[in-house]
Amino acid sequence: MTILKVRLCIITLAASKEANNTTMVPPTSTTIATTIASLILFLASNSYSYPPTIEGLSYSSVPASDVDLLEFPLNLEYLEAEFFLHGSMGHGLDRFAPNLTQQGPAPLGGRKANLDPFTKDVIKQFAWQEVGHLRAIKNAVKGFPRPLLDLRAETFAQVINNAFGRQLSPPFDPYATPLNFLIACYMIPYVGLTGYVGANPKLQGSASKKLVAGLLAVESGQDAVIRALLYERVKEKVHPYRITVAEFTDRISEIRNKLGNAGLKDEGLIVPKCQGAEGKISGNILAGDNYSLGFARTPEEILRIVYGGGDERVPGGFYPQGADGRIARSYLHNYA
Predict the structure, then answer these.
(1) DSSP H stretches of helix in the chain
(2) What's a Pfam family this protein contains (predicted)?
(3) Model-level pTM?
(4) I want to staple 139 with a disulfide (CB 3.0 to 4.6 A). Which of 51, 222, 230, 290 is the partner?
């Protein structure tokens, strides 16, 4: 249980006890002032202005060789946080956790999606989880300001057009329906989790490995939920395209494999039986290799995918000015 939860429990219990053991007394101005001051101190101590300490994790506990590998995922975590926050609540980090942005530029085009209550609840949970991920990483490394992110519907439509090799009409809009938003979600967390799988064996510090293992666990859970919700509708045709959910996921995975340029590391919801788990089944609710283990990607592969052009040296896609951190910037020094 976190300190925040403990404090909330204490306050709740104290209030309950006082209500049960005292008679109703009109509040005095002193009581009101004291209460307000206490609330201000409480809220200030738990704001996002400074991440609470994670046991065993601090700047000093992270070897220098791990810093770049821990900072790089911030690019994906910023993207996920902003997309989920905007999609579920109509606002991003600038409203809910402004100090985590380190005054980086506001995202382009993010907006509230047309979601049913269940999907909205799921995405809202994802959103707050991503805020936690940003805080966790920034507790371990200095990090960098939020890069410019492009969350416009046109950007997602371009990804879909590239995946199908033609322009869909009307253009795909991730914010239009719950199903569209889930398909757009299919594009994002999985890329990040493959990066965590790839980074983990390269880390030297035990605290670094613990952090990445924890991040990977939740990112994998998010991806599993997204895939499960889509798998439930796998044969449904996405309006108005008359293209099934299965084909959408297959095409998105194919284009990511192509852009990553490192072989098969991505699979849709339906695969040839020989490619399914143990070669026994074509349903593919979780993507995995021949041993049903998670695929690993390098930072270079991830940049090729999220830039949308297959070249880690040329920004674009969700990062019109490029990603940040030493690894990403090392490929941009000759970009004009």
Answers:
(1) 3-21, 29-45, 64-71, 74-89, 93-96, 117-140, 153-164, 178-186, 189-199, 206-231, 245-260, 299-306, 326-329
(2) Ferritin_2
(3) 0.83
(4) 51
What is the CB neighbour count within 10 angstroms for residue 167?
13
Query: Could you give the angle at the alpha carbon of 95 between the alpha carbons of 93 and 97, nearest 5°?
Result: 50
Q: How many residues does the chain have?
A: 336
Residue 215: closest CA among 76, 17, 18: 76
Gyration radius (Cα) of the chain, Å: 22
Most distant pair of Cα atoms in the chain: their distance: 75
Model pLDDT for residues 20-40, shown as the tens digit of each residue? 443 334 444 444 444 444 443
Question: Got the DSSP string for 124-147?
Answer: HHHHHHHHHHHHHHHHHS---PPP
Tokens of 66: 């791990």
Q: Whose structure tokens read 């579920």?
A: 88
Residue 113 makes CB contacts below 8 A (sequence gap 6+) with 86, 87, 88, 123, 174, 175, 176, 178, 180, 181
